[in-house]
Fold this sequence. Notes:
The structure is a homodimer.
Chain A: H1 2-61, H2 94-104, H3 106-109, E1 116-121, H4 132-150, E2 153-157, H5 170-181, E3 187-191, E4 195-197, E5 214-217, H6 220-224, E6 236-240, H7 243-253, H8 262-272, H9 283-293, H10 295-298, E7 302-305, E8 312-313, H11 314-317, H12 321-334, H13 351-358, E9 374-376, H14 395-412, E10 417-418, E11 429-430
Parallel strand pairs in A: 1-2, 1-3, 5-7, 8-9
Antiparallel strand pairs in A: 3-6, 4-9, 5-6, 10-11
Helix pairs in contact in A: 4-14
Amino acid sequence: MTRIKVHTKAPTFFRDCRPFILAVFxxxxxxxxxxxxxxxxxxxxxxxxxxxxxxxxxxxxxxQSLNRTHDPPEPTFYDDPELCYTLDKPIDNWDDxxxxxxxxxxxxxxxxxxxxxxxxxxxxxxxxxPIGDHLLLRGFKNKADYCRIHGxxxxxSNACFDPKLCNVWAKVAVIRASMVAHxxxxxxWWMDSDAIITDMxxxxxxxxxxxxxxxxxxxxxxxxxKKSWVAVNTGSFLMRNCEWSLEFLDVWASMSxxxxxxxxxxxxxxxxLSDKVIPGADEQSSLVYLLLREKKKWxxxxxxxxxxxxxxxxxxxxxxxxxxxxxxxxTEAKVPVLxxxxxxVVSESLDGVWERYLRDAGGFGNSGWRRPFIxxxxxxxxxxxxxxxxxxxxxxxxxxxKSLNFADNQVLRRYGFMHPDLGNGSSVFPVPFDFPADExxxxx
Amino acid sequence: MTRIKVHTKAPTFFRDCRPFILAVFxxxxxxxxxxxxxxxxxxxxxxxxxxxxxxxxxxxxxxQSLNRTHDPPEPTFYDDPELCYTLDKPIDNWDDxxxxxxxxxxxxxxxxxxxxxxxxxxxxxxxxxPIGDHLLLRGFKNKADYCRIHGxxxxxSNACFDPKLCNVWAKVAVIRASMVAHxxxxxxWWMDSDAIITDMxxxxxxxxxxxxxxxxxxxxxxxxxKKSWVAVNTGSFLMRNCEWSLEFLDVWASMSxxxxxxxxxxxxxxxxLSDKVIPGADEQSSLVYLLLREKKKWxxxxxxxxxxxxxxxxxxxxxxxxxxxxxxxxTEAKVPVLxxxxxxVVSESLDGVWERYLRDAGGFGNSGWRRPFIxxxxxxxxxxxxxxxxxxxxxxxxxxxKSLNFADNQVLRRYGFMHPDLGNGSSVFPVPFDFPADExxxxx
Lengths: 444, 444
C-alpha cells in the first residue's frame, strides 16, 4: 500500500509543481541573461578605462620626441617688449615664464631636467698663433662629438655679445642670451675653448645637483681658508636655467668691465684674494669673492665639484694618459661585452658595465687610472700662442694634440678606426674585430 | 453556440499549448543568454584589439624619444667578424641587417625615414693659409648651427680613413664607415668644408626622394648631352643608408686612387668628358661617368636635384645677398608673425608661414630673391689658400666672410643679436623688440 501511495504521490507532485519548476528555470535564465547584460556593459565600460590607463602609462614611460614645428599662438615671454636677451634688464619671475613656455610645448617638458645645452666659443677674428684656429677647430669637434654621443645641443659663439665683455667675461653675456633662447634647456654648460673632454663616456651626474643652481669645479678650503683665486675654475661649469641664475649673472656682471665699479672691484679682488697677481677683476676671482663675501646669499645653491674632473689641470693629467689607455685596454681584453662593437647612438648602454670595472680605478684623482672627464689647458692660450712661460717650448701644443687624439680614439672607434700614435692625429688604422682581445699592445 | 464553442475552445487551447509557450519563452531567454555570452566574449576579445590599435596609433602620432642606454644582447651585424667599416669587403643584405637592428632598437625606428647625419671634414693637419683654419672653424659652426636648429646629428672628420683616399675621395671612406656606425640614420648628407648653409630655415624635401638613393645637384642635359665634369656637384649630396648605396660606393671607389685601375680611369674620364682639364680620376667626374655609361644600372635611383641650391656656385650668389636681405626684411616688416621672437628649438614652426610669402620670390634661381640653401665656394681652396686665379685678390675670403655672416644672422637673431655689417663678423647689435617693424634699414 505504502508503495502504491508513494507511487501515486509522485506524479501528483510532478504535475502540481510543474509551474514552480518552470518559474525557477525561467528565473535562473533571467538572472543569467541579466548578469550577461551587466557583464557586457561592464566590459564595454572597461574598454575606455583600460584604453586611457594603458595609453597614458605607455606614453608617460616613453617620453615623446621633440616637436620642433609646433609653436602655439598663445603669448609667451617672447612677446613681452620689456624682456631682452642682454644683461641690461633683469627678468622677473623667469621660473614661471619658463614653466608656462614648457606647458605650451609639452614635448620639451618631458625629461627637461636632463637637458643640457653646451656653450663654448672663441674670438670673432682669426688667431694670431699659426696653430691656434686648428686647435680651436679640433676643440670644437671634440665637444660636438661628445654632444652627439649623448644627445646634447651645442652652440659655438664667436661673436662678442657685449662690447665691454670681449674677454674672459664674454661667457656671461652668452649664457644670459642662451637661457632666454633655450627655455627647453634646464642646464647651460659653459666650456672654455681650451678645455677638452677626455672621457667621452662619462655623463655629468645631474641627480647630484638637484638642490643646486651653479656647479663649478672648486675646493672649499681654498675658497674659505686660502682665499685663492684658483679655488674654483670657471673654464667648465654648469648653470641651471632659472631665476636664481639670472640674478647671479647680474651680480656677477656688476663686477665686470661693463660696470662703473670695475676699478673698485679690481682693487678689492687684488686685496681680498691671497694669490691674485694679474690685475683686473676677472670672472673667476669674482666668483671666489662672491662665495667668500656673500656665502649666505649664494653659497647654498653653488655646488663646488671636486669628485671628478669637471675641470682638470692638464699638467696633472697628460703624463698619465698612456697608463690609462693600458688599463682600459687590459679591462676590455678581459671583458668581451666591453669590446663589443655597438652603434654610436647606443654607446651609453655600456656605461653601467664599465662602472663595475672602474671601481678599482681609484677615483678621479691623480692616483687613479680613470679617464679624466675634462682636461683644461689653462695658461696655454692656443689662440694667441702666448702661453705661460712656465710651460717650456711646445709642451702645450704637444699635450693638446695628445689629449685630442686620446679623446678622438674613443669616438673614432665607433666608426671602426683609431689613431695608433697619440702624437700624430694624421694617421689611423682600422680596428680589428674583437679588438683588443689580442692586439692591445698596438696602442701601448 | 458558436460563442460557447469559442469560449470553451480557448481555455482548452491555452491549457494544451502551455508547454509550447513555455518552450518558446525558454528558447527566447536561452537565445538572449547565449547572445549575451557571445557579446561578452566578443567585447572581451575587442579589448585587446582596440588596445593594441589604439596604443600603436597613439605612439605613431607621438614618436617616443630616443633610448640611448638600451642595447639588447641579441646579436646584430656588429657581432659578425666578417663585417667591416672599410671599403675592403662588401656587406651582403645590408637592408635586412639594418632593419633587424632597428627592430631591436624601436625608439630609433620611429621617424627613421627623416633622420639625417651630416658629414663634413677637412685635412688632419693645420691649413697652410693663415685664414684657412679660421674659415674651417666658422664653416663647421655654420653646419653645427643648422643641425642644432633642425635636430640632425653632425660628424666632422679630420682623419683620413683610407691612406689612398686623403683627397677629394676621402668622403667615400667616411660615408661608408658612417653608414655602419649609424644604422639609425636613413640619410647621410655629405658637405665639403667650403660649402656654407645660407638658408638656416630651409628643410631638405626628403619626401621628394622616396624612390631614390642618391640625391646630387645636377643637370641632365649637361650629363647626357654635354658630358661635362661639372654636370653634377659632389660638394653637397645625400645618400640613403642602404644596400644600393654600399654597392654604389664600392663601384665609385673602384675608380679612385685605391684601385689598381686608377690610371685607366684617369685616361678614360679625360677622353670621355668634354671639358675635363685637370688630370686624374676625381670623384665628381667619376659620378658623371657612371651616370653616362651605367645609366641603366644606377641612373634610376639617382635624383639630379636642380630645383633648389643643394649646391650653389658662390659667384652666382654672393652679389645678390643684400637684395635678398632687403626682401626678407620687407616681408617681415609687413607680417608681424614672421618677426615674432621664438625659441630656437621651434624655429621650424614659421616655415609654413614663410612659404606663403616666398611664393613671389621667383624660385631658387638667379632671378629670384629666395635665400640660397647652400653657397659653395668651389675653387676658393680656403685651407691651402691657393684659389683659382680667376678669382682676383681677396674675392674668395671677402665673399666667404659675407656669406658666413649672412647665415649667422639667421642664427644669432634667436639669441637676440645680429651683425650690422656682413663684411665684419666681429660686431653685433642687440635686436630691438619687434624688429624689423621700423629699423629694417639698419641692415640694408
